[in-house]
């Protein structure tokens, strides 16, 4: 077993190796490497498979009770100050490792089908592998600096993958937006990290927590200052896990190919924020105000995401807002002290949301055969409908995912969401209420999505619906962009009905449906195996077990009944409006036009940020450049002018002999020396 | 240990070799470039061998010292040596200059003169980092300007004469201060000497030190450059051709930082204690101001030029941090920017060779035809915006850690500086990524495609970038590989600097956090001393 830990560093290195070999091949022998599609993908998928097996072995060993493993080496040194890097393997790490490698592996298998016709197939695999490597590196980091390093690296991979189709303007804007918004969060993370280091002298999590506690107790550091550092560090997760107010990048990130929406922007990278909060628990525990801020940010984000998801017509955007909302739950759980609950939801959500996204990819793949390679058409749910008939596997797995996210027992989401809600209730009933209300909204928008996509009549060929998307062609009404997308679409426009996706795409869906259905059982509250394995660093196993013994059926049933109840109300409403057509959604929208537009326009965050930050920074930059050109440089040019004038005058003094200049310089020096020896 | 005069050899060899260029029978410049490249490689090999054989990392003192009396009447000695500050920069010089010669492969205008100047630059630049005699330092500092002036004014862009003149006026004007301050220092006190080590040991009155510091500072502020003396740089960089660019950004800017550490901090430590807060403030101004101007700039070369200014701000903060890790970060930032800046400027040149425009508005969508250049440009931009895993990140984070843990400043000042410097962390990706977006992303610019051949990178170009990126990524992954080389020297420098500030003690954890928590609001050093 020990051998296993000795070589655990291979986990991030193997995918990195794959990415490097393929990447170097692409740069050096582009044509050849691009043609080696199958070998490249098989190579990378098998490397990821190997890390997956490795991760499961480590998980098994940890479940067997192996102690935490830590190995570090000196990374940089200056004088006495040493920065170390390394890897640690503990319970939390192994859980994250298995989640990341499993989802990554399945997504990579899926990619083979999804990207089959894409010219960037090999490049996509290289990026995916690079991402897997960075994410695994993040998970095994033993200290804050190393987390920061990989934190930024996963951000870079996200940037590269969102901008994968770089000839699309929307993708180009989205990838830049994602990186910059994440940098705003990293800015806080960096400042908080430096502040904590300055206070405690260490980057190591538990040590940092202990030091900080003694410093606060002895009054050397005010708790408000320590809280400020904590909030700054929390800014990192706010950006990465798309929490309010830095959530704006995630919906735009859907411009990337769907496999990465599933892997990066649903299951793994966006959950890194929650993971960091978990790692920082030793520090945050001692700062109640930070915990409160975390909890309320999460609760508000959960609500915000759900309200926006209600009205989205783009299937991926809808799922993206749902992800924001679910991440809000996790963050809220972390804030109310539900360490285990938050991580449990992270795990269940990783599986069912990855599956939902992969399903949406499968749907888009099918739709593209009908409406062409135009994301505006292929992803719009108003053009879908009735797909269950054509895509049975996709629709069934999507239904499993939908039931899981709605929190219907016994699907995975029920157990984790219920645990969060009961934790929230014991911390603050107001938080519970927000979470409970959001659960209802979630059920509504998810079933709206399901019904619009898979039930009813297929609308992809309905000219009256299509007409909404294409402005009438007439003199002067021709939009060049529309025309181009039409041209693009035509060659692929070869089918009247969508078809089920190939096996490489449906197989991962089926595999992911298993944990989405069943993994909740390991966290059932009366026999919580998950909690016995993953519990806060400040607690001991005995405490956890004692707490678990206090389980009461009556309490559980009331909590569960409440959340299932509101979910059922949401589902009923959705079925009345979108399946049974008993209620007309557009009539409701017209009744509350301002609320409807508020939700449809995503609370106007993009407009606000664009006006304030984007335009504002551009204006400031232009003004500074103007100053640089006119004032700073202008002053210099003016002195240049003066020098020329002065030179004309000096001409009469010049004798042109070198000795004369030497004399002047010498005189000046002498003057200096004399003056200052006297002073 | 051998007694071979390594440093003299590596300085004089390329200069001597350049004298044979006129003799090479060559009309179209095909042989000259091979000749220059081979000379460059030999010299680089000599540099590496010399340091490998005779340089001891653990020794903080000057090594490989040679001293010959040159003009005894003037007390001018040819004395050279290298310590941890200059050694990495000498290696960097050899590396970048050799690659610049390779980058200059397509130069067809007056190739003989061009390569003659490149080789002359080669020796001249190393000399600046190696000489240990004040007067000699001034001479080589001036001499190295002449090739740059010619390289700018003959091979530059449209406004090359304006740019070259501005460059020479600025730097020559600045170097007058070196001459005056250097001579004054030499004649001060009982002994007259130009030797830098002896000068450093001179006991100079504080009042006088401040004046000398100010004079040196102006000269080096022009070179580094520091706001508001930076305006020559966008002009010079905007007009230079790619190989000259690589030298300007990769090496010449580092001379300013090197001399600041060697002379201002090394020889005038008491004055440094007084000037340090100003250095920090100017560093922050550099970071933010240049990042903003870079963002607004529409000309590609000028954009990158401003980004260089922004990055040099970290060097200033590191020098003024009074901590080992801060100073170490400053040296690392110089080396790192030398590599990254050179690679970015080379890529800008390569892009220009294809698009024949530097204006961002006239580009767009070129990534579809120039995929390799796109990939390399992205990598280098990410390196420049301090992505972890690459050297720029390590340098910046070391400066950040150094400054935020520094016990020389009070808490308020530190918070303010760290906060503002970190704003640069947000601004840098904004301008670099929007630059990438405007060049490579989106739909192809039909107008551009219709009349330019957008060929992808050739192997020579990929090779150059690969050479530059290997150390960038190597240092980024394992910075100790470089920091251990100069660590003993930076520790010695920091000790000396800290000794000149009496309130600073040897750092112990408790004392450090206590003393730095005593907050005084004025942005000053905690110095208590009587004015001399």
- Spatial strand arrangement across the major sheet of chain A: 1-2
Please tally the helical runs of chain A, counting DSSP H or I stretches of 4 or more residues: 32
Distance between the termini of chain B: 45 Å
Task: List how many beta strands of chain B DSSP finds.
Answer: 2
- Spatially, the strands of the biggest sheet of chain B line up as 1-2
Q: Which blocks of ≥5 consecutive residues of chain B have pLDDT under 50?
A: 506-532
Helix content of chain A: over 70%
Rg estimate of chain B, integer Å = 23 Å
The shape of chain B is globular
Q: Helical segment tally of chain B? A: 21
The overall pLDDT average of chain B reads: 85
Report how far apart the termini of chain A are.
76 Å
The run of helices and strands of chain B is HHEEHHHHHHHHHHHHHHHHHHH
The interface involving the most residues is between: A-B, 71 and 84 residues
Report the principal-axis shape of chain A.
globular
What does this structure look like?
Chain A is built from 32 helices and 2 strands. Chain A is mostly helical and 679 residues long. Chain A has a two-stranded antiparallel ribbon. In chain A, strand 1 and strand 2 form a beta hairpin. The radius of gyration of chain A is 29 Å and the shape is globular. Chain A starts with a helix and ends with a helix. Chain B is mostly helical and 532 residues long. Chain B has a two-stranded antiparallel ribbon with strand order 1-2. In chain B, a hairpin with a 4-residue loop joins strand 1 (63-71) and strand 2. Chain B is globular and about 70 Å long. Chains A and B meet through helix 2, strand 1, helix 7, helix 8 and helix 31 of A and helix 7, helix 9, helix 12, helix 14 and helix 15 of B.
């Amino acid at each position: 077993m020990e051998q296993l830990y000795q070589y655990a560093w291979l986990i991030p290195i193997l995918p990195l190796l794959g990415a490097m070999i393929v990447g170097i091949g692409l740069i050096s022998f582009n044509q050849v490497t691009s043609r080696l599609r199958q070998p490249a993908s098989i190579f990378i998928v098998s490397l990821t498979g190997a890390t997956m097996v490795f991760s499961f072995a480590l998980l098994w060993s940890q479940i067997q009770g192996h102690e935490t493993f830590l190995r570090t080496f000196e990374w940089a040194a200056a004088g006495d100050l040493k920065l170390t890097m390394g890897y640690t393997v503990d319970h939390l790490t192994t859980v994250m490792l298995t989640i990341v490698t499993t989802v990554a592996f399945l997504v990579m298998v899926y990619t083979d089908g999804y990207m089959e016709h894409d010219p960037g197939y090999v490049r996509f695999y290289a990026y995916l592998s690079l991402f897997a490597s960075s994410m695994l590196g993040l998970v095994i980091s033993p200290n804050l600096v190393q987390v920061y390093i990989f934190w930024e690296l996963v951000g870079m991979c996200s940037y590269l993958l969102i901008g994968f189709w770089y000839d699309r303007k929307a993708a180009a804007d989205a990838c830049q937006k994602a990186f910059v918004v994440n940098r705003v969060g990293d800015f806080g993370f960096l400042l908080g990290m430096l502040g904590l280091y300055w206070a405690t002298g260490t980057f190591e999590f538990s040590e940092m927590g202990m030091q900080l506690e003694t410093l606060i107790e002895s009054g050397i550091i005010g708790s408000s200052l320590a809280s400020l550092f904590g909030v700054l560090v929390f800014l990192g997760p706010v950006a990465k896990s798309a929490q309010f107010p830095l959530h704006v990048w995630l919906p735009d990130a859907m411009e990337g190919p769907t496999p990465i929406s599933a892997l990066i922007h649903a299951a793994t990278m966006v959950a890194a924020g929650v993971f960091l909060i978990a790692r920082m628990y030793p520090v945050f525990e001692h700062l109640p105000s930070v915990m409160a801020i975390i909890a309320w940010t999460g609760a508000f984000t959960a609500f915000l995401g759900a309200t926006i998801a209600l009205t989205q017509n783009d299937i991926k955007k809808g799922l993206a807002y749902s992800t924001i909302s679910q991440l809000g739950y996790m963050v809220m759980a972390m804030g109310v002290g539900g360490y285990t609950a938050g991580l449990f939801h992270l795990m269940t959500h990783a599986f069912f949301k990855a599956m939902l996204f992969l399903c949406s990819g499968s749907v888009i793949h099918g739709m593209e055969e009908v409406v062409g390679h135009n994301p505006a058409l292929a992803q719009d749910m108003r053009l879908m409908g009735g797909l269950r008939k054509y895509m049975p596997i996709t629709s069934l797995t999507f239904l499993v995912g939908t039931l899981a996210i709605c929190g219907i027992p016994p699907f995975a989401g029920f157990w984790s969401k219920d645990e969060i809600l009961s934790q929230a209730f014991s911390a603050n009933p107001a938080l519970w209420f927000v979470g409970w209300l959001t659960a209802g909204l979630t059920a509504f928008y998810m079933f709206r999505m399901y019904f619009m996509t898979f039930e009813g009549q297929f609308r992809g060929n309905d000219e009256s619906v299509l007409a909404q998307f294409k402005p009438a062609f007439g003199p002067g009404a021709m939009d060049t962009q529309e025309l181009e997308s039409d041209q693009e679409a035509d060659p692929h426009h070869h089918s009247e009905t969508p078809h089920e996706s190939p096996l490489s795409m449906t197989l991962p869906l089926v595999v992911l449906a298993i944990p989405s259905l069943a993994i909740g059982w390991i966290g059932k509250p009366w026999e919580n195996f998950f909690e016995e394995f993953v519990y806060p660093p400040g607690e001991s196993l005995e405490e956890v077990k004692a707490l678990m013994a206090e389980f009461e059926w009556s309490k559980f049933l009331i909590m569960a009944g409440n959340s299932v109840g509101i979910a059922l109300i949401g589902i009923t409403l959705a079925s009345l409006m979108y399946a049974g057509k008993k209620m007309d959604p557009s009539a409701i929208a017209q009744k509350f036009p301002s609320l409807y537009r508020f939700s449809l326009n995503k609370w106007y965050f993009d407009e606000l940020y664009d006006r304030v930050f984007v335009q504002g920074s551009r204006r400031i930059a232009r003004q500074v450049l103007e100053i640089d050109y006119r004032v700073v440089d202008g002053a210099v040019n003016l002195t240049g002018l003066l020098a020329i004038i002065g030179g004309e005058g000096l001409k009469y003094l010049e004798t042109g002999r070198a000795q004369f200049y030497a004399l002047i310089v010498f005189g000046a020096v002498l003057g200096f020396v004399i003056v200052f020896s006297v002073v | 240990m051998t007694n071979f005069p390594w440093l003299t050899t590596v300085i004089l060899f390329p200069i001597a070799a350049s004298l044979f260029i006129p003799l090479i029978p060559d009309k179209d410049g095909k042989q000259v470039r091979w000749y220059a490249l081979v000379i460059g490689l030999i010299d680089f090999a000599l540099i590496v061998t010399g340091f490998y054989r005779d340089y001891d990392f653990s020794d903080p003192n000057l090594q490989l010292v040679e001293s010959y009396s040159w003009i005894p009447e003037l007390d001018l000695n040819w004395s050279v040596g290298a310590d941890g500050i200059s050694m990495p920069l000498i290696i960097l010089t050899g590396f970048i200059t050799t690659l610049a010669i390779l980058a200059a492969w397509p130069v067809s205008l007056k190739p003989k003169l061009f390569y003659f100047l490149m080789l002359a630059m080669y020796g001249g630049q190393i000399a600046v980092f190696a000489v240990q005699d004040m007067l000699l330092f001034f001479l080589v500092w001036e001499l190295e300007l002449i090739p740059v002036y010619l390289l700018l004014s003959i091979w530059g862009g449209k406004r090359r004469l304006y740019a070259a003149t501005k460059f020479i006026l600025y730097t020559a004007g600045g170097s007058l201060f070196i001459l005056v301050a250097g001579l004054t220092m030499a004649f001060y006190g009982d002994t007259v000497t130009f030797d830098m080590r002896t000068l450093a040991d001179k006991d100079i009155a504080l009042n006088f030190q401040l004046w000398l510091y100010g004079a040196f500072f102006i000269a080096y502020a022009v070179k580094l450059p520091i706001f508001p003396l930076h305006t020559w740089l966008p002009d010079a960089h905007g007009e230079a051709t790619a190989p000259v660019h690589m030298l300007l950004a990769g090496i010449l800017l580092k001379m300013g930082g090197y001399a600041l550490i060697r002379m201002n901090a090394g020889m005038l430590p008491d004055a440094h204690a007084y000037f340090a807060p100003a250095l920090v403030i100017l560093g922050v101004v550099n970071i933010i101001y240049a990042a903003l101007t870079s963002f607004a700039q529409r000309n590609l070369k000028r954009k990158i030029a401003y980004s260089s200014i922004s990055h040099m701000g970290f060097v200033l903060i590191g020098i003024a941090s009074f901590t080992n890790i801060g100073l170490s970060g400053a040296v690392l930032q110089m080396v790192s920017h030398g590599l990254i800046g050179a690679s970015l400027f080379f890529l800008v040149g390569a892009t220009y060779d294809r698009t024949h425009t530097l204006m961002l508005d006239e580009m767009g969508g070129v990534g579809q035809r120039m995929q390799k250049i796109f990939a390399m440009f992205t990598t280098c931009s990410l390196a420049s915006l301090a992505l972890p895993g690459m050297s720029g990140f390590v340098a910046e984070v070391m400066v950040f850690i150094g400054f935020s843990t520094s016990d020389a400043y009070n808490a308020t000042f530190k918070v303010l500086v760290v906060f503002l410097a970190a704003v640069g962390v947000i601004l840098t990706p904004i301008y670099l990524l929007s630059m990438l977006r405007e060049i490579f992303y989106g739909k192809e610019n039909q107008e551009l495609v219709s009349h330019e051949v957008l060929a992808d990178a050739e192997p020579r170009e990929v090779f150059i970038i690969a050479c530059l990126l290997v150390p960038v990524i190597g240092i980024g992954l394992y910075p100790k590989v470089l920091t251990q080389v100069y660590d003993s020297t930076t520790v010695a420098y920091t000790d000396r600097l800290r000794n000149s500030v009496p309130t600073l003690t040897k750092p112990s954890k408790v004392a450090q956090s206590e003393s730095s928590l005593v907050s005084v609001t004025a942005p000053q050093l905690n110095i208590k001393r009587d004015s001399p």
